[in-house]
Amino acid sequence: LKKVKLSMKRILTVLSRREIHQQALRAKEILAKQQEREALETQRFHLEESMKVLAHKVRQAGPRDSVASSAWKSTLRKYETDHNQLLQDLAPLRRDTMQLLSADWRYSRRYSDLPGARRWRKEWVRALQERVWKPVRMH
User: Pick from 70, 75, 109, 113: CA 20 to 30 A from residue 44's CA?
Assistant: First the structure.
């Protein structure tokens, strides 16, 4: 019986090590995807801002057909195609890094990796103390 217990223990440690290794590899992949996503999101944001500026310039110029307004319109069309391409590139990255976006942890019932409910009243957490509760006394 003791040998069986020891062999089971060894098997469990091997399995848990393997699982930890796989989680570490998965975390590295997610981190790389997240960094790529952040770069693309920043690029998308700057592109949208410059598109808004150009659209405003075109609106301000009015219906006149000048060289500047036609250049702005062609640049705006180029920006829109770049923006669509960026959105297509971002879609799988957003899907892959979606698990990093979690709801506010203060309102969750439990931690993801620990069993059991979290009793917030019995634990002092600094982040929960946005407003200190003061008892009201009726005299």
Answer: 70
